UniProtKB/TrEMBL annotation:
Keyword annotations from UniProtKB, A to Z: Hydrolase, Metal-binding, Metalloprotease, Protease, Zinc
Gene3D superfamilies referenced in this protein's UniProt entry, alphabetically: 1.10.1370.30
Cofactor binding notes: Binds 1 zinc ion.
Cofactor: Zn(2+)
Similarity-based family: Belongs to the peptidase M3 family.
Organism this protein belongs to: Neobacillus piezotolerans
NCBIfam families with a match to the protein in the record: M3_not_pepF (TIGR02289)
Protein name, entry field: Peptidase M3
Highest taxon of the lineage: Bacteria
Length: 565
């Protein structure tokens, strides 16, 4: 039996099942004469109106699929979008970009308002190759297959099949025996699907490499730097990797010693690196989670709480775990409705609480953008900016976690957990980024080599203090649990960069809470056509991941940790 899903949270103002009708609307845009700067601006508005209608419908269908990956009708609609509508979009997007960029009036557009849009379109033109369209459709099919596999993943536990997240949450528990048992059970479940996952990733690497070659690049990594319009270089990324290894990993190891001591273990094993020094999960019923997060947000700023309550009242939250639900957590945007939707697949745990607060940072950012500037477009969603406000929200609520952990020692423990999370968001993303640099610059690698490389990189960063002896295979294959490598290649470094900025938000908050919150809101509502550095500046922080900046934030983290002892 499939769950009855409420679809009323999004608007379908265009019939995507009518592919010919969709194509006709694109075609009519191409025929519009542009004979003045005002014609061009009106044409851009009409194009945007069409694209946001399509975006909202496709987003709604995608969320429906994630909410129930086992429903055949929902899957069919989602796959139609990917296999039929997406190729039409890619085909006409290229033609529309050319029409815009070849217009004699393009240089008369206001640079502050349209400059980022122009650069984005120029990059798209540079990258577009018609022969890549079927490759990109296949890429989406493979990603969908991955989500189906992970959505249906169960773990055998005490003679029963349990949803994967429900067993994953047991890694939080103080009982070491339960943690170890859960770790083994999860690895057993992963081992069963690993051949399928390897095949998917093998195909993705080859597809993406061919996409890059077709577009004139040596590898997919270099292709993606242009596709993402990054405001920093490949070398900057490598420098960031080294700076974190030099200045954050030693501090991480000292924090690991604290946890090791408090856990009372002689060796720090993989299932110890997840343990939370908390007596109970923060909630048992979803209503308790909703009430508590609402209160925490309101205490930080009334507007934050209003956004959350609005989402709860309008069916824009789907939290908790169930079989057939897609993996992970995300916040997505509905540009026609001017709303956001938060999806999460977690059992009661600290991680589920933290993830919800994180996604609400994205949601507040989106609502402020909708309020100040109206619907925004793909090119304006730079992840280094988006993640600044999600991590920033987590750290702004750090001092309010006593809402779920009122006992003094539990409150200190959960604050340390949030800080451990901050450390991990400087370490895991760089593990993932370096891993992807290697994968896509070595596209002929084997599945075994991929696992070995992931283990090697993991030991340099987040697993540096962990005794992994005897579990090299398990650690090596654990990359398969990360959705970003499949759906969002070369996303993860954005987390690390944004976390450096978010730690500055926390530093500002500790000095002047009211001013830090106002700066957060100012930055989150700032014109996203600006440079990343300019938006960070409006938020009261610096867009800087140099060695000096990394070292300073490492020292700040250690100071905050000392304050929680």
């Amino acid at each position: 039996m499939t769950q009855d899903i409420d679809h009323s949270y999004y608007k379908e103002l265009i019939d995507l099942q009518d592919a010919e009708g969709v194509e006709a609307q694109f075609s009519s845009l191409l025929e519009v004469p542009i004979e003045s700067i005002s014609d061009l601006e009106k044409w851009l508005k009409d194009e945007k109106d069409l694209m946001i209608k399509i975006q909202e419908a496709m987003t709604g269908h995608q969320v429906d699929f994630y909410r129930n990956t086992e429903d055949a009708d929902i899957k069919s609609i989602y796959l139609h979008d990917q296999q039929v509508i997406q190729p039409i979009i890619m085909k006409y997007e290229a033609k529309l970009n050319e029409k815009c960029c070849k217009s004699p009036y393009i240089n008369q557009l206001d640079e502050n308002r349209y400059g980022l849009m122009r650069r984005f379109r120029e990059s798209k033109i540079k990258l577009f190759r018609e022969e890549n369209i079927p490759l990109m459709v296949k890429e989406q099919e493979l990603c969908t297959k991955y989500s189906e596999i992970m959505g249906g993943l169960t773990v055998e536990w005490e003679g029963e099949e349990k949803p994967y997240p429900s067993i994953q949450s047991k890694l939080d528990l103080l009982d070491r025996g339960v943690r170890e048992k859960a770790y083994h059970a999860m690895m057993s479940a992963h081992r069963a699907i690993k051949p399928e996952i390897d095949t998917i990733m093998d195909e993705l690497v080859q597809l993406r490499h061919q996409i890059a070659l077709n577009a004139g690049f040596e590898n997919y990594r270099d292709y993606m730097f242009v596709a993402k319009n990054r405001e920093y270089s490949v070398q900057d990324c490598y420098d960031f990797h080294e700076n974190v290894e030099k200045h954050i990993v030693p501090a991480w190891n000292r924090l690991a010693d604290v946890f090791k001591s408090k856990l009372g273990v002689d060796t720090y094993r993989p299932w110890d690196n997840t343990a939370k020094l908390l007596t109970n999960p923060p909630y048992s019923e979803e209503s308790t989670l909703l009430d508590g997060v609402s209160e925490m947000l309101r205490k930080t700023d009334p507007y934050f709480g209003e956004c959350f309550d609005h989402m709860g009242e309008h069916g824009l939250l789907d939290l908790g775990d169930r079989k057939g639900k897609g993996p992970g957590a995300f916040c997505t945007f509905l540009p026609v409705s001017g709303d956001t939707f938060v999806f999460a697949n977690f059992s009661p745990s600290f991680d589920s609480l933290s993830a919800l607060i994180h996604e609400m940072g994205h949601a507040v950012n989106a609502y402020l953008q909708f309020s100040e500037h109206g619907p925004f477009e793909e090119y304006q969603l730079r992840m280094e900016v988006a993640e600044l406000y999600s991590f920033g929200m987590e750290l702004l609520l750090l001092d309010k976690l006593d809402r779920f952990y009122p006992e003094k020692e539990d409150f200190k423990s959960v604050q340390r957990e949030e800080l451990r999370w901050a450390f991990s968001m400087l370490l895991k993303p760089l593990t993932g980024d370096l891993f992807q640099h290697w994968m896509y610059t070595n596209p002929a690698h084997t599945a075994k080599e991929r696992d070995v490389k992931f283990f090697e990189i993991s030991k340099r960063y987040g697993l540096n203090p962990v005794d992994t002896s005897g579990f090299e295979e398990e650690v090596g294959m654990s990359w398969a649990d990360t959705i970003h490598y499949f759906h969002f290649p070369f996303y993860t470094i954005d987390y690390g960069i944004a976390m450096l900025g978010a730690l500055q938000i926390l530093e500002n908050y500790r000095e002047n809470p009211d001013q830090a919150v106002e700066s957060f809101k100012k930055g989150a509502s700032a014109d996203c056509n600006q440079s990343i550095a300019a938006i960070y500046k409006e938020t009261g922080v610096s867009f800087d991941f140099s060695e000096q900046a990394v070292k300073r934030m490492g020292e700040f983290l250690e100071k905050v940790i000392q304050d929680t002892h």
